[in-house]
Amino acid sequence: MLGDVLASVISSVADLMKGIITLFVIVDPLGNVPIFISLTERMSRDEKHKAFHTATFTGLILLLSFAVAGQQMLNFFGITVHSFMIAGGILLLIISVRLLISGGWQEQAFSPESIGAVPIACPLLVGPGAITTTVLNIQTMGIVITTASVLIVFAIVWLTLRFIDPIYRFLGRVGSLVIARVMAMFIAAIAIQYILEGITHVLIL
């Protein structure tokens, strides 16, 4: 009995770590630091904090909504999780290629709240990859572990945005750009994996 409980705990912890790492790589707060800096460089310190608080809260609510009702949304539109995996993988691949080539987005915003919601919260933090990952984690890991992984990742996101200026100074412009490109490569690899797995399941069915 004790052995079964221990094995279950170890399995749950392993799933939680996998969920956190996968979602963190896709949300990519560190890799997006140069983009966050460029989007808020003309803002005051208070405006930056307001934008980043808005981004964290908006992104968290979006992902928790998909964690709670993602499958119901797919069922409502008659979409299988594997079709969503393929679509999300293609969109994620496009985003990663754009990051690799241009280094980010060229977006305009007119207030801290608007820039915090779009494009920082969505699509920079919560894009198709993060949504796809959350929906898939629900299928494989369950609601508790998925919700926990979302909360932990966005706690890290909040800390990253809270201390973004020291982080940027520590990494430097070159270091931040290198991290952004490397993380974009990881995102591209994850996107390819999503597409291959989705196509495999569709062909088998």
Q: Would you summarize the structure shown here?
A:
With 205 residues, the protein is an all-alpha fold. It has 8 helices and no strands. The chain has one domain.
Key words describing this protein structure:
mainly alpha; single chain; 205 residues
Question: Can you give a write-up of this model?
Answer:
- With 205 residues, the protein is mostly helical.
- The chain has one domain (2-204).
- It contains eight helices and no strands.
- The chain has helices spanning 2-27, 33-40, 45-76, 81-102, 112-125, 128-141, 143-162, 164-204.
- α2 packs across α8, α3 packs across α6 and α6 (128-141) runs antiparallel to α7.
- The longest helix has 41 residues, at 164-204.
- The chain is globular.
- The protein starts with a helix and ends with a helix.
Separation, N- and C-terminal Cα atoms: 38 Å
- Count up the helices: 8
**Approximate shape:** globular
- Kindly state the percentage of residues in helix: over 70%
Please provide the ordered H/E string of secondary-structure elements. HHHHHHHH
Estimated share of beta-strand residues: under 5%
Radius of gyration: 18 Å
Strand count, sense and closure of the main sheet? none
Task: Give the total of beta strands.
Answer: 0
Domain count: 1
Q: Runs with pLDDT <50, length 5+? A: none
Q: Could you report the average pLDDT, rounded to the nearest whole number?
A: 81
Q: How would you classify the helix and strand content by structural class? A: mainly alpha
